[in-house]
From TrEMBL:
A Pfam match: R2K_3
Protein name as it appears in the record: ATP-grasp domain-containing protein
InterPro entries for this protein: R2K_3
Domain ATP-grasp: 141-285
Amino acid sequence: MILIFCSDPMNKNAVDVDYEQEYSSAQSLGFMIKLICLEELLEGNLEKALSKISPNTENYVTALYRGWMIKPKYYEDLYNGLKKKNILLINDPEEYRNGHWLPNSYDKIKEFTPYSNWISIENLKNDWSQIYSNLSQFGNKSIIVKDYVKSRKHEWHESFYIPDASDRNHAAKVIKNFIDRQGDEINEGLVFREFVNLERISVHSKSQMPLSKEYRLFYFKNQFLYLFNYWEDSQYDEEIPDLEVFNRLAQTIGSSFFTMDIGKTFTGDWIVIEIGDGQVSGLPTDSNILEFYETIKERAD
């Protein structure tokens, strides 16, 4: 298996500084590692983006991309460019969307996750009637707003949390903040989700947003791979959730490498927060990254 990291924007021969720890861990285990230039990929210069990757002369070899989130259209370019070099990313473009966009996985997880609805970007012009229609399905419940991939949860009150979905004036203010601040980076559309209180463990040291008992589970070919504490700057107790139901659920996800973020509610239930593509899902810097890559190597061999 090949691992593909993004190069440093200022030095195409070095890994992006934010991935140095992962790069070093993987390198120490003997992984074959290649670098791509993310900036060239996003500019549409695929040949330059992949200039440091030579074609594989034998049969197709599987690769994992470990880098920054990219929109599906860029992932498809990356996938097709590598395929021409006889390198196949573990997730094809459809599998990437299945992990990356919440609406693509929602039907699989809806029994275990808060009620959600969404609006595609084509219907977001200047007509708020569709937004209000979606909000009406929540009554006066608390909700959160995000796009198909990302939220602005560190701007908790300004661009994320809506205490009462029936309060149109306040909801519109939060939603507009989110749209304006996401700008061109908005992913595909808006997603509204019922807010569920999770068991609190602390507050974020900078944004003061509440931090809850959450874990990130990695799955490799639909089998459990590894568990991380979700929050880096929080003290977790020794409780580890029973993963049986989540492992069964993982069998239904149309992706070969994905994450499942889970959390514990105030009532003691465990829920799915969201699914993510495993290639662009971050690792806590204070975790055992070497062990994570050892587990990948064992599974891939």
